[in-house]
């Protein structure tokens, strides 16, 4: 993204760096949670199950969730998780890039 934005010869490089950080951080957060949310659902079910004799294998738990509720059950809580992930990860990337710039650390 930086190479495409820099090619336009923008006079607002700091503003474009922040915009790029917001977009890439938000996309990274969404991508991460789309990949791991089913395992997080299984983990939550294992942690909150009062029956100590139930399966502790997250893949078995996830299989039973899928059989019972389908793919929608595996992604329970996706909307609030993504809603939280976008600003949190965007802020993390922007802060990281700002810290690197303030410390004078260059990266390619």
Automatic annotation (TrEMBL):
Places the protein is found: Mitochondrion membrane
Query: Could you say which protein family the record assigns here?
Result: Belongs to the mitochondrial carrier (TC 2.A.29) family.
Q: Name one Pfam family in it.
A: Mito_carr
Q: Which PANTHER family match?
A: MITOCHONDRIAL ARGININE TRANSPORTER BAC1 (PTHR45624:SF15), MITOCHONDRIAL BASIC AMINO ACIDS TRANSPORTER-RELATED (PTHR45624)
Question: What residues form the membrane-spanning segments?
Answer: 18-37
Solcar repeat copies, ranges: 16-102
Gene3D superfamilies per the UniProt record, alphabetical: Mitochondrial carrier domain
* Protein name, entry field: Putative mitochondrial carrier domain-containing protein
> Where does this protein chiefly localize?
mitochondrion
Membrane topology category: Multi-pass membrane protein
Task: Name a single GO biological process.
Answer: mitochondrial L-ornithine transmembrane transport
Kindly list the organism's lineage. Eukaryota, Viridiplantae, Streptophyta, Embryophyta, Tracheophyta
User: What's a GO cellular component annotated to this UniProt protein?
Assistant: mitochondrial membrane
Q: Which keywords fit this entry according to its UniProt record? A: Membrane, Mitochondrion, Repeat, Transmembrane, Transmembrane helix, Transport
Q: Which domain of life is it from?
A: Eukaryota
The record's section on PROSITE patterns has:
SOLCAR
Which InterPro entries does UniProt cross-reference here?
A: MCP_dom_sf, MCP_transmembrane, Mitochondrial_Carrier
Question: Which GO molecular function terms does the record list?
Answer: L-ornithine transmembrane transporter activity
Show the SUPFAM superfamilies listed in the entry: Mitochondrial carrier
């Amino acid at each position: 993204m930086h190479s495409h934005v820099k090619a336009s010869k923008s006079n607002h490089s700091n503003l474009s760096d922040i915009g790029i950080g917001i977009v890439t951080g938000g996309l990274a957060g969404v991508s991460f949670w789309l990949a791991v949310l089913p395992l997080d659902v299984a983990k939550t079910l294992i942690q909150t199950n009062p029956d100590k004799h139930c399966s502790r294998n997250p893949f078995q738990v996830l299989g039973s969730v899928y059989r019972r509720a389908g793919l929608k059950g595996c992604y329970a809580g996706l909307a609030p998780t993504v809603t939280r992930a976008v600003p949190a990860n965007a802020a993390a990337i922007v802060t990281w890039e700002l810290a690197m710039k303030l410390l004078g650390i260059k990266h390619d």
